Amino acid sequence: MARRRHQEEHENHERWLVSYADFITLLFAFFVVMYSISSINEGKYKILSDSLTGVFNQPDRAIKPIPVGDERPRTTEPDRSLVDEESTLSAADSLESIANSVREAFGDLIQAEQLKVSGNELWIEIELSSSLLFTSGDAIPNNAAFDIIEKIARILAPYENPVHVEGFTDNLPIQTAQFPTNWELSTARAASIVRMLAIEGVKPSRLAAVGYGEFQPIADNTTAEGRGRNRRVVLVISRNLDIRRSVSGVGSANAKPDAALQRAGTQPAKTPAAPAPQAGAVNPPSPAP
After folding, report:
1. Domains of the chain (ranges, CATH numbers)
2. What is the DSSP string of 250-270?
3. I want to staple 123 with a disulfide (CB 3.0 to 4.6 A). Which of 163, 166, 207, 238 is the partner?
4. 8-17, 140-149, 237-246, 266-275: least confidently modelled range
5. Partners of 209 in the beta sheet?
6. How far apart are alpha carbons 289 and 280 in whole angstroms?
7. How far from each other are the two terminal CA atoms of the chain, in whole angstroms?
8. Rg (the chain; Cα; Å)
9. Interatomic CA distance for residues 27 and 19, integer angstroms
10. Residue 180 carries which DSSP code?
11. Is residue 140 exposed (0-12), middle (13-18) or buried (19+ Cβ within 10 Å)?
12. Is the pTM of this model over 0.70?
């Protein structure tokens, strides 16, 4: 008896559509994930990235021997009067150079009244509207802030003048978990700018941050225009540390180049002498080396 030939199944030529559809679905999901990653705030990402880089890329620290006795080189102290005079002249020249460089770099913002450069022979001020640097009620720099502060840092980096950053707000109250009052908001904004300057190459030892909250207005807080002027960040570049301490103690809005500041700008800080022991007093024992 003849065998019945098994009839071959009809070949399905459309099976590739299933694999193709799966591939398209995965590709779509991939691009959705990539888009969501790219939309992360660039300001937060750069601060985080640079901070981590600074932490993990610190050079190895090694214990160095301490020179003892005659092994230390003998040096001759220079004439302090000549050194102080030269440093005073160079500091004054650097203030003028910094002010001129900032005016050249930010002519458009100066014309738009978003940035202001002012000062005297003891310090200069770079005043920036907070709207250029931050969103309302936040201390995280926006993307435009990085370009502005990067330019300022390039101007400041070659010099040694002390810099302190002042934060100011309007008198509208803020009460959030992060910023209970305007004190915290103004201080956090000043600290953010200081951190950015350090990231961009300004020596951290030259920098300081201070927040004055709503208590040093330069305009009327009863109008929207006045409140906008009061929301500001001011970079104060001083001739020396004595000037910075004097200005930051009262705020740049209240500081005046009076006689005391003039002396601080031309004289080095004096080291306080140890008080003379009183009669009958017993001096405490010196600590062991």
Report:
1. 80-207+214-266 (3.30.1330.60)
2. H-TTT----HHHHHHHHSPPP
3. 238
4. 266-275
5. 165
6. 27
7. 115
8. 31
9. 12
10. S
11. middle
12. no
